[in-house]
Every structure is written in C-alpha cells, then in structure tokens.
Fold this sequence. Notes:
By secondary structure, the protein is an all-alpha fold.
Amino acid sequence: xxxxxxxxxxxxxxxxxxxxxxxxxxxxxxxxxxxxxxxxxxxxxxxxxxxxxxxxxxxxxxxxxxxxxxxxxxxxxxxxxxxxxxxxxxxxxxxxxxxxxxxxxxxxxxxxxxxxxxxxxxxxxxxxxxxxxxxxxxxxxxxxxxxxxxxxxxxxxxxxxxxxxxxxxxxxxxxxxxxxxxxxxxxxxxxxxxxxxxxxxxxxxxxxxxxxxxxxxxxxxxxxxxxxxxxxxxxxxxxxxxxxxxxxxxxxxxxxxxxxxxxxxxxxxxxxxxxxxxxxxxxxxxxxxxxxxxxxxxxxxxxxxxxxxxxxxxxxxxxxxxxxxxxxxxxxxxxxxxxxxxxxxxxxxxxxxxxxxxxxxxxxxxxxxxxxxxxxxxxxxxxxxxxxxxxxxxxxxxxxxxxxxxxxxxxxxxxxxxxxxxxxxxxxxxxxxxxxxxxxxxxxxxxxxxxxxxxxxxxxxxxxxxxxxxxxxxxxxxxxxxxxxxxxxxxxxxxxxxxxxxxxxxxxxxxxxxxxxxxxxxxxxxxxxxxxxxxxxxxxxxxxxxxxxxxxxxxxxxxxxxxxxxxxxxxxxxxxx
Length: 577
C-alpha cells in the first residue's frame, strides 16, 4: 500500500549523498519497479486518507492510472540509465527523480485535492531540473515557472469551485469538472501544461536549454500528465477541446518544420503530437479515448528516444544547429538507427507504434463526422513526415565536408537505453494487442492493419517526401529562431506589468499626499484653531472685517466640519485602496 510516488521520491532524496553508480542504480531499480508494480497491482486498489481535513485518496488504480504508471516508470528507468551514461550529476538526476515522483503522485491521485498538490510540486521539481544546468536555462526556467504557476492557479480555482458545487474533492463524487466557469478554468489551466495554442511557447523556450539528459525527462511528464488531467476533467469530451487539439497538431508541426535547432524542433513536435491526444480526449468516444492514451504511451517512447539521439549528437559534436551537421550516420551508426526508428514511429509509418495510435484517433474523428479535426490531423501527419525527413537528412544522411572520424560513439549505457526503447517502438507497432490490453476506453474497434489504413499511412509518407523535396531549398534559407507569439507576449507582459506597478504606485503616492496634507491641516487646526477661524470668518464676512460675528462663526464651524469630513473620506479611501 506504499504509493509508488513515495518510493521514487525517497530515492531522489538519497541521490545527492550516494555515489553516482549506486545512486543511478537505485534510480533504475525504483523506476523499473514502479512499471512492474503498476502492471501487476489489482484494479481498484486505493488508499483513502484525510488530507488537510478533507477526505482524499492518496492513490487509486484504474485503467487510466495503471497505463500512466507503467509508461512513466518504464521510460524513467531508461532515462536514468541514459543520464548516468551522459555524465549527469547526482543532483540533476535527483531533481529528475523528484519530477518523476511528483508526476506519479498526480496520475495515481484519487481526488482533485491530491492531484493539484502533486501537480504544483511537479511544476516546482521540473523548474529545479531546468535551473540546475545554469546559463540560459535559468532565465528560461523563470518563464517556465511563471507559465505553470498561472496554469496551476487556474486549475486550483476550478477545483475549489468544484468542491463548492459538489461538496467533495473525490473523483467519484462527480463525472469530471462541473460545466460552466469551473470547466473553463480547468481547460485553460490544464491547457498550459498540454500546450494549447497561445499557451505553448514555454515548450520550445525551455526544453532546448538544460542538460541533454534533463531534456529526456522534460519531454515526458508535464504534457502527458496534462493529457491525463484533461481526460479526468472532461471524461465525455468536448467539441472545442477536439478542435483545439487539431489546431495544436497543425501549429506545432508548422513551427517544427521551420526550426534548425534540433531540440527546439523536437519541442514543437511535443505540442503537435500532444494535439492528437487532446483531440482524442475532446472527441470523447471509447475509441478516441483509447487512441488518446495509446498515443500517450507511444509518444513517450519515441519522443524520449528522439531526445536521446539528439542528446548524443549534441554531446559528441557540440552542435545543435542542423545547418552545421551532416554525415553523422557513419560516425554514430547506432544513434542513426535509433533515430530512424523513432522518426518513422512519430511520423506514423506502418509497422511502427505511432501508426497504430494516430490511426485510432483519426478513425474516431472520421466516425464522429468531425471532418475538420480529421483533415487537420492528416495534414499534420504530412508535416511530421517532412520535419523528420529534414532532421534525418541534415543530421545523419547529408554529405558534408566536415570530418567526423574523431567523433566518439555513444556510450554503452546510452546505446542500451536507446535501442531498448527503439525495440518497444517496433514491438508495439507490429503487435499492438500488447498495448490494447492495458488501454482505457475500448480498443476493440481499432483495426490498424486494414488496407485502407495502411494505404493512408503510405500516402502521407509519400506526400511528406514530395513536400520536403519541394520546400527543401526555401527551408534551407531560414536562419535563426522563427518568431512565435512569445515575441509579443513577453514584451506585453513586461511593459504591461511595469505600467500597472507604476500606476498603482503613483496612485498610492497621490492618496498618501492628500491624506498626509489633510492630517497635518486637521492637527494644526485642533492644536491652534484661532487662526483658522479668523481666516475663515474674514472670508465669509461681507465687509472683510476681522471681527467674528455669529453668522460668520456658524459658517466657520460648518466649513471646519466639511474639511474634517473630506480629510476622513480621503483617509478611508487610502485605507481601502
């Protein structure tokens, strides 16, 4: 009954005081054990507790959390091995395991309160993982933290509203988040994590910055925990979410195709591929839900593998820009093989795992007559083929005058991690029933190897080849990073915040001057009222005489009372402000 998150978090706490070999060895064992435990633990296992005075479920096992636990543990096991072989420090891997542990806590939670608790801790641990590398990663980490703080706050507001409406934080108390404002808050709050269009720029801004091994972890947990949260919040789907997922798929792939930085390209493809998952959740049918979580499982495998292969290239040749690479196939043959498998998987080529799960989502969109979603996802599939033809061509297969004969090949641990994950991409592509048995939803209507589906995959691949051939020359002329919405959002946030702060500060200063001046005037009048009375009476007397008569005295008293009332009103405004 010990929550798996706590096991991983315990190892994370021990890591800094252990040797690299022992610490990373414990990390491999702990995360691998989570995958096994998630597979064998009986469905319905749960641990009720009282948390902050409320009924809560610290962990709960159902079809959704089981699948997430299996893949989170499995890929963490490979990523820890990769980290050890990539010279990652114990501290960095400790932060990474903290990130894994808090993600496990979120997906195994049986109530909204426990989920948001681990959700926010996940944002903290992932930020620390980014910051650990220093340099440019620090500033990117601050922006990352701000985005996720805002998203988490909106999600928390939705959960509090849910409690007010339902009277309980338990998942079992209601089917998802109640409609209306709570649902809107939850959609936008979770939308930060999954990379809704307009809320996505933290992805390409952050993931290329830290250590290459850290990027492997970062590519997995935040966005996929977000998909899980979206499915919990909207178990019956929502049309707007389906179309947002399609938009994510298309926008992400367009920006990915325009990138030359390897990890930035891969980061945009996280948004694009998560778009398929979000579309599946939005469609909401049994087949769409099964397809969404099949794609979660498959995407984690091939996306982590892509970041591993990119990390080997960066570590061995100290270059991220595809323009300055080429011909690495002979210098890094096993890395090139692993990349090819991952590229075919993410592109949805028949025989690889992405082909199966993408087809389930597009088939569900077609069955529900959501033609807009269906055709956008197909177009995004063409763009994905083009992106990874570009990546593979410039990094591994293009001829180059540079001499890579002195390049050191991938370390043994890196090779084991990469080829192990690549093997799973092929296994679940050729034998999808191994995945169907653990999927939530209903995969019985999934028929990946029909002639029509295979033909669709081959046509998309052909269009990708033709598209890259036509656009190769224009794409080669693109220089640095292509502007995204953050080129508007970041300055707007900076100058908007500065204007707001200065405006509020100036207002308080003005009120303070009025209150202080009035206070001094009242104090002076109380301590020595005669000069005030004399001047006031003089102003009100018809002949301007200095004598104070009964009429002028009444006027003086009324004026003094009015002055006191105005000063007190100004003071009250200052206090309430």
